[in-house]
Write a structure and sequence with these properties.
alpha/beta; six-stranded mixed β-sheet; 17% strand; elongated
Length: 354
């Protein structure tokens, strides 16, 4: 009897709970249960304050060279204008493919709104980009190309044209006659391969100029480029000089590495030397006559337009498939012009907390 009494009490309690639940459901009406007050607040602020802030990952080839610091500064400038958040992350060195792939995969898994990527290898980064796009995370490519069509826009220098500018100027400096060498950067880097080909295409128009070496690679660091430069120059030394008349290097690290190799051998300024990109030490060398020209990109604008283009796409706006950021030949004669000074000495520290 005692057990039956307890069971009866339980049934009564259960019926009371069901009744209360029904009354609560009826109060909520056809739109469902009463939402959590905190959730209502978030939704209201989102509706009243506009769209939620975008989160855009910006992934460079490397993070040490001044070129990438300028890219970073441009991205920060764009993010501040947009009220967006950027996540700046990339490998330390420009030859760490595995690390860059990992960063792209991490950002994809994190679910960022978009990725702005400077692929350090035009093939190795193809699958990570395809995976991001498959998960509905759009990708804007900057600086260097990718052997894929799975991206929204390509924001970069016309690198082949930049190489052509170097080759044409070298031909003029040499009066159409002489011997030249080119220290390449790294296999798989689309941007520098295009510059190298542009230089060779332009120099081939001068019948009196011979390219005596174009198959050596400097690698991703100044140190490796200096070593490669020393090895390249060693068999070309003739007493107090060199048996060549000109040198071309396609990026900041190879240019500076070769400059150091020439300086250590006390040969700086004895041959015509054209490099690519800018840094404080390269500007000093240009002023001192140890460099005859630099081909300059606009990295701050590249970073800026990369983020801006991604934001426009995410907002449903139409963006161009290819956006050129320009290339310029700077020489000792025009380096003090306002435009060239802005490119030679980009004010990236204004935007970065270092």
């Amino acid at each position: 009897m005692k057990r039956m009494a307890i069971a009866a009490v339980c049934v009564v309690c259960l019926l009371w709970v069901v009744s209360c639940a029904k009354e609560k459901s009826d109060v909520a009406g056809p739109t469902g249960p009463v939402p959590d007050p905190a959730a209502v607040g978030d939704a209201a602020s989102s509706d009243a304050g506009g769209e939620a802030a975008l989160t855009i990952a910006v992934i460079p080839k490397g993070t040490t060279h001044e070129f990438w610091k300028s890219i970073h500064a441009g991205a920060v400038k764009a993010a501040e204008e947009l009220g967006a958040e950027i996540i700046w992350k990339g490998p330390l060195k420009e030859d760490d493919r595995d690390e860059q792939i990992k960063v792209v995969e991490d950002m994809t898994n994190r679910g960022v709104d978009g990725i702005v990527l400077a692929p350090l290898d035009d093939t190795a980064l193809r699958l990570p980009v395809e995976e991001a796009v498959r998960k509905e995370i759009p990708v804007v490519i900057i600086d260097s190309g990718l052997k894929s069509e799975d991206y929204t826009s390509f924001v970069a220098t016309d690198n082949h044209h930049g190489g052509e500018l170097a080759g044409e100027h070298m031909g003029e400096l040499l009066g159409g006659k002489g011997k030249v060498v080119m220290l390449r950067y790294a296999e798989g880097s689309a941007s520098t391969m295009e510059r190298e080909q542009g230089f060779l295409d332009a120099i081939a128009k001068f019948d009196g100029i011979e390219v005596v070496s174009s198959n050596q690679y400097g690698g991703a660091t100044t140190e490796s480029a200096q070593k490669a430069g020393e090895n390249l120059l060693a068999p070309l030394k003739t007493g107090d000089g060199l048996s060549i008349d000109g040198i071309f290097c396609p990026n900041e690290s190879t240019t500076f590495g070769m400059l150091r190799a020439l300086q250590d051998s006390r040969l700086a300024g004895t041959v015509k030397f054209i490099g690519f990109d800018s840094s404080e030490k390269l500007v000093t060398a240009l002023e001192a006559g140890e460099l005859d020209a630099l081909i300059l990109q606009d990295p701050m604008n590249m970073g800026y337009l990369g983020v801006k283009t991604m934001a426009q796409h995410l907002k449903g706006e139409t963006v161009e498939a290819r956006i050129s950021t320009g290339e310029n030949l700077v020489t000792p004669e025009n380096m003090n012009e306002e435009k060239m000074q802005a490119l030679l000495k980009p004010d990236y520290k204004k935007w970065l907390k270092e």
